[in-house]
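Q: My labmate handed me this sequence with no annotations at all. I'd like to see what the chain might look like in three dimensions before we decide whether it's worth expressing. Could you predict it?
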Amino acid sequence: MPASSRSIVASLRGYYLRWWRYDKNTEARVEEALERDYWTKAQWDGWKQDRLSYILHRAANKVPYYREVWSKRRKKGDRASYEYLENWDILEKSTLRQRGSDFVADDCDAKRMFRDHTSGTTGTSLDIWLTRETVKSWYALSEARWRRWYGVSKKDRWAILGGQLIVPVRQNRPPFWVWNAGMNQLYMSSYHLAPEFLRFYLTALKEHRIRYLVGYSSSLTSLAQSALSERRKDVTMDVVITNAEPLYDHQKELISEAFGCPVMETYGMAEMAAAASECSNGSLHQWPDAGVIEKSDSAFADQPVELICTGLVNPDMPLIRYRVGDSAIFSDKAEDCGCGRTLPILKKIEGRNDDLLYTTDGRRVGRLDPVFKDASGIAEAQIVQISLREIVVRFVGSEGFEKAIERTIASRLQDRMGDIEVHFERVEKIERTASGKFRAVVCELPAEERSAAASG
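A: Here is what I predict for the chain of 456 residues:
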């Protein structure tokens, strides 16, 4: 499809998404969220208790999965009340994957809801259903705390380095991006960040008059390195916002120097069970109105704690005590942030340290979860790079698995990484690290081979 046609299609999709996300009441929702940033603890406690009570009551009585769970518990003589969060069982991703539609409330029509499909960081396919009211509420929070905190808005021209494939990876001529007029967005493929193409990305940012940039930390770092090596002083941003990957100090400094602006870290998920964003004082603030994050009383200071979250935004597909697969280091005491906001502070988010893979033409490829989209029959998977031309996909098969799925995944990996061999290894389970973390992507290239590949 010609570049102009791709932009038309992307813009049509953008207008559709804009209809789902925003309406005449969006600004009022944004202002309410910004006002809550400065609430007292008593105000937050009262609001959260009311909202949580509503979510728990609705889940126990209107959601098929939870109603079934509580019915079984009652038959066994369990008289615990569903009104208390601690009485609920922990929800695993595997359960949500297997019985996704059973988490949609009885009084909702799934056909009229927005269906968000995500593979997450584990290669595990998940479907999330959202009403338009839920989508609008979520994007009002995002507008407030992922944009307004940083002096920009959805009306400004912005760019995202994302994991959607814009053009075939074998294409060696720009554009490697598409303009989405519906969202004022330049969507740039993270799969074409080879050394010889980076200067084209920088020029596109300038020509499209982009004010702020969003993307994976690793992709933004590659772009920043190019800007510095090319001595490009003509590509500046108001802010750069990172997502989906951890942001390291050296990356933050490099990106800030390259684009002459602050670099802010954010945390979120398609399941809308928790979120956080960095303020101008450098604190990562949790969003209490997004979800309840439980912290174990036995947790040691400065040690990562597994996140168990209860979403407060989506009452029509409520996720209660959901094990999100990430961990965080909590503040060990109440802290007053210099920004003046009273939102809780997370010291650091852990659990998103996927490796990068390397291609023969010098690209570094991260976040490969889109290759598992609609891959039914695979419970979880891990991508391992053995050499520049060889990839092994270890996977745990489940009901519905067919060999054709392997061909689909192999083709998608080759689309993103070029001429490589892809082998599949079916295993009983994917090994975790000593700390219990799941690594979705593992690079086993020697350090010298990585360095040679990255230098092109």
